[in-house]
Design a protein that fits this description.
With 308 residues, the protein is of the alpha+beta class. The chain folds into two domains: 123 residues, Beta Polymerase, domain 2; 136 residues, Four Helix Bundle (Hemerythrin (Met), subunit A) (Up-down Bundle). 45% of the residues lie in helices and 8% in strands.
Length: 308
């Protein structure tokens, strides 16, 4: 793939209602990602992690993107540490560019789990469009348009699902977040670090979903903390600074780490890192959810919740 210089668009500011305006330039009117900007994202990842292949999946592969969509990318590389590779790739991307959700796999891991309903690899491989291949030149725009023709017929069940909770149910999310955080502190030596990190991921996930719920916005059915943080920001929440690499590593404990054969090994440093970011998110939720609910109670009765 030939190198080119591409300027990624900046995230637009919030409007007066606290929501983000449409990110202009990176989603085409026909529902495809902008080819030049997708090429820039791919090039950043290639320069950083030197993958064998990069696959576009999700709404971008179906030609169904909207201003609030993100780019879903699967990175395949032989012999890689999947968690570290995905985290490094994620951190190579500009925070001023389009939101990108990255997963990584070795060829063996992808083949083993290609039909697993519990992992995202199945839809990624089923609908995926190769946008980079180490051995073959790929013209990204043509590849996306050709590959999306069949994917446009994807069933509605394969699309992102959401549920709109009552704002007051944010307190239930918060209660669950506190419980998971407390369980992560279990001093029993038989409780593995992996299990404690799973609790930490669940605590952060429930805290973010509580914040989103308090804002009166439908919660996405996802364990990806970066995606949930982005949704909370779109709802108008000003989150504390979150280390993107640690957030990505913590997300892993909401997926593959819960199943046998995960292959990861959690170190004490890993645990300290994810414990810090999970605690930060829960503490923010403890302060903000009551504030948001109080603000909503003081709003005019004509105000209504919307499913965004």
């Amino acid at each position: 793939m030939s190198a080119s210089t591409v300027t990624t668009p900046a995230r637009s500011a919030r409007d007066g209602n606290g929501s983000f305006e449409s990110r202009r330039g990176w989603v085409n009117e026909d529902g495809f990602p902008n080819g030049r900007i997708l090429a820039d994202v791919v090039q950043r990842i290639v320069r950083t992690v030197d993958p064998d292949r990069i696959v576009l999946f999700g709404s971008g592969a179906r030609g169904m993107m909207k201003a609030g969509s993100d780019l879903d990318l699967l990175i395949v590389k032989a012999g890689c540490n999947r968690r570290e590779l995905a985290a490094r790739a994620q951190c190579s991307l500009s925070t001023e560019g389009p939101p990108v959700d990255v997963i990584a796999a070795t060829p063996e891991h992808a083949e083993k789990h290609r039909d697993s309903l519990s992992l995202v690899l199945a839809p990624a491989l089923r609908e995926g469009i190769t946008v980079y291949d180490r051995t073959t030149a790929v013209e990204i725009s043509d590849a996306v348009r050709r590959g999306s023709a069949a994917n446009r017929c994807a069933k509605a069940a394969d699309m992102v699902q959401k549920r709109l909770y009552k704002p007051e149910e944010a307190l239930d999310w918060l209660r669950k977040a506190r419980s998971e955080l407390a369980q992560s502190r279990n001093p029993d030596p038989e409780v593995e670090l992996d299990s404690r990190c799973i609790n930490l991921q669940a605590a952060a996930e429930r805290a973010l979903k509580g914040i989103i719920t308090a804002h009166g916005v439908a919660v996405e059915f996802t364990h990806k903390l970066g995606r949930l943080a982005e949704q909370a920001q779109r709802a108008g929440e000003n989150l504390p600074p979150l280390d993107r690499r640690k957030l990505h590593l913590l997300s892993d404990y909401g997926g593959e780490a819960q199943y046998p054969g995960w292959g990861g090994e959690t170190t004490e440093q890993d645990f300290r890192d994810v414990r810090q970011i999970a605690a930060t998110i829960v503490q923010h939720a403890e302060r903000r959810i009551p504030e948001i609910l109080q603000q909503r109670r003081s709003m005019p009765a004509a105000s209504s919740t919307t499913c965004r």
